[in-house]
Amino acid sequence: MPHEPLPSRMRPASLEEFVGQEHILGPGSLLRKAIEADSLSSVIFFGPPGTGKTTLARCIAQVTHAHFEQLNAVASNVEELRRAIKQAKLRRQTSGHKTILFVDEIHRFSKSQQDVLMPDIEDGSVTLIGATVQNPFFALTTPLVSRSLIFEFKSLTKDDLLKIMERALRDSRRGLGLFRVKAEPKALEFLADIAGGDARRVLNALEIGIKGKRHAGPKAMTFTLKDAEESVQKKSILYDRGEDEHYDTISAFIKSMRGSDPDATLYWLAKMIYGGEDPRFIARRICICAAEDVGNADPQALVLAEAAFAVSEFIGMPEARIPLAQAAVYVACAPKSNAAYLGIEKALKEVASKPVQPVPAHLRDANYSGAGKLARGQGYKYPHDYPKHYIRQEYMPVKMRFYDPQDTGYEKKIKERLENLRREGENSLPVRQAGKHQGSLKTKDSRIA
């Protein structure tokens, strides 16, 4: 055991030692109750590396009365799989004991190997626990997924990782307690920040850093920030998430995109990625900038930003840096307009500070019995019934202008179209005079938009 890597030595032996994944293992949760009652059905654990999938499976092995069999999909073939299933059936017939079959990296099983499992999962000969880093809805066969409960493991939080490291530093039997290490808080926080939510990675770095120091006599060893940096061959940068540097950097990032400087945009993006920023936080800011600062000057910017958000969540870091960079550069290089943003701000101010205008009778919902008696929808003109799909009519009692499109990018076309429509409207009569409704245009005109 002393020769095993620290992550292996510190692997929790019970649910009480398990850290993280509160969303699926919290008190009273479905999974925890099933484990504690020893009534687990087939499950698939999926999520990033180092988040506890294999560890939880081994914790289950400690508490279950069932026989626990483990295979690794990389090293196992169909013959080994059939042998494990045959033994499980024999065990059930002779002793009545169930078998839990844990398959690590189950996504590496071919379709035929996954199909071998199906009849025995179906009849209860084995209870499957599969672990994978890939989304099972893409990596596994549909029949296997449909017969299993799916539990997604999340990247461990900074607090989770700090707790894991502190436990390893205290533990004299399995951990690093015999080294009598006094770790600087900044050193542990640095390792937690750069670990990407991976307990295996953070414990490996901690062990390398501490064993790499020369133990000077009986005094406690001090593990410094410099030691932490050297253990991962990565320097610490001033990026304190949740504090000033965090907000200053994201501010510089947004202002660089707004200011059409792709190089500065990439620099501040790189600083956030290097500092361990949550890629979802970055992606949300790109989406906001695309809507607020690019707007209708290039509507494609928001589409690309939203796609980068979705892809980043799906693939995770470090690959997520690529779609994030693509979207951020696109937003930085796109023509700019904040007309839509200014428009909604003006409209909100108007609604909040002045009497709210009533909805005109011809725009009100007419799709209920009795609406005709109340003149609901009467006089509404359905734009698609008119040339160019436009007819001038009143849409608010007191006409106001909130949206002022700019002469940039696609918004220039929007501006030209609105100006043309307004000119055409000026050459026609208004739909109704103040206090006087025009007649109904029969059934079509009572449609709700």
UniProtKB/TrEMBL annotation:
<feature type="region of interest" description="Disordered">
    <location>
        <begin position="421"/>
        <end position="449"/>
    </location>
</feature>
<keyword id="KW-0067">ATP-binding</keyword>
<dbReference type="GO" id="GO:0003677">
    <property type="term" value="F:DNA binding"/>
</dbReference>
<feature type="domain" description="AAA+ ATPase">
    <location>
        <begin position="39"/>
        <end position="155"/>
    </location>
</feature>
<dbReference type="GO" id="GO:0000731">
    <property type="term" value="P:DNA synthesis involved in DNA repair"/>
</dbReference>
<comment type="function">
    <text>DNA-dependent ATPase that plays important roles in cellular responses to stalled DNA replication processes.</text>
</comment>
<dbReference type="InterPro" id="IPR003593">
    <property type="entry name" value="AAA+_ATPase"/>
</dbReference>
<dbReference type="GO" id="GO:0017116">
    <property type="term" value="F:single-stranded DNA helicase activity"/>
</dbReference>
<dbReference type="InterPro" id="IPR032423">
    <property type="entry name" value="AAA_assoc_2"/>
</dbReference>
<keyword id="KW-0547">Nucleotide-binding</keyword>
<protein>
    <recommendedName>
        <fullName>Replication-associated recombination protein A</fullName>
    </recommendedName>
</protein>
<dbReference type="GO" id="GO:0008047">
    <property type="term" value="F:enzyme activator activity"/>
</dbReference>
<dbReference type="GO" id="GO:0009378">
    <property type="term" value="F:four-way junction helicase activity"/>
</dbReference>
<dbReference type="InterPro" id="IPR008824">
    <property type="entry name" value="RuvB-like_N"/>
</dbReference>
<dbReference type="InterPro" id="IPR021886">
    <property type="entry name" value="MgsA_C"/>
</dbReference>
<comment type="similarity">
    <text>Belongs to the AAA ATPase family. RarA/MGS1/WRNIP1 subfamily.</text>
</comment>
<dbReference type="InterPro" id="IPR051314">
    <property type="entry name" value="AAA_ATPase_RarA/MGS1/WRNIP1"/>
</dbReference>
<dbReference type="Pfam" id="PF05496">
    <property type="entry name" value="RuvB_N"/>
</dbReference>
<dbReference type="Pfam" id="PF12002">
    <property type="entry name" value="MgsA_C"/>
</dbReference>
<dbReference type="Pfam" id="PF16193">
    <property type="entry name" value="AAA_assoc_2"/>
</dbReference>
<dbReference type="GO" id="GO:0005524">
    <property type="term" value="F:ATP binding"/>
</dbReference>
<dbReference type="InterPro" id="IPR008921">
    <property type="entry name" value="DNA_pol3_clamp-load_cplx_C"/>
</dbReference>
<dbReference type="GO" id="GO:0006261">
    <property type="term" value="P:DNA-templated DNA replication"/>
</dbReference>
<dbReference type="GO" id="GO:0006310">
    <property type="term" value="P:DNA recombination"/>
</dbReference>
<keyword id="KW-0235">DNA replication</keyword>
<dbReference type="InterPro" id="IPR027417">
    <property type="entry name" value="P-loop_NTPase"/>
</dbReference>
